Amino acid sequence: QVQLVESGGGLVRAGGSLRLSCAASGRTFSPAYMGWFRQAPGKEREFVVTLDYSAGTTYYADSVKGRFTISRDVVKNTVYLQMNSLKPEDTGVYYCAAQLQFSGSYDYWGQGTQVTVSS
After folding, report:
1. Judging by beta carbons within 10 Å of its beta carbon (0-12, 13-18, 19+), is residue 42 exposed, middle or buried?
2. What is the pLDDT of residues 47-93, one digit of tens each?
3. Are 91 and 115 in contact (CB under 8 A)?
4. Range 23-41 average pLDDT
5. What is the C-alpha separation between 115 and 119, in angstroms, rounded?
6. 62: helix, coil or strand?
7. Phi/psi at 96 (nearest 5 deg)?
8. At 86, phi and psi to the nearest 5?
9. SS3 at position 11
10. What's residue 117's pLDDT?
11. Are 6 and 22 in contact (CB under 8 A)?
């Protein structure tokens, strides 16, 4: 079993920055992919970014490309999401997720952390 715990959310003005963290614990942590998703009030959860955990390759949603950066610390079993030039439309609950080897979907999810961007 894997536990994911997000942190780093908060209230920030438009144009500001936040860095989210996602710490993994539990079984030996070696996911195939790590991802960040977000859910705005009244909307469905949407994809933000995915990271190939071993290769380090990334894929970003167009809405965050050039502003957000995902990174990992394999020693700490932690994934980060650096968010710059934040916009009010970035507001939502941010979730990290882990997809295991040979899995076709994300298997574990964190509880989420709230990000609020004021205009």
Report:
1. exposed
2. 999 999 999 999 999 999 999 999 999 999 999 999 999 999 999 99
3. yes
4. 91
5. 13
6. coil
7. -100, 155
8. -65, 145
9. strand
10. 98
11. yes
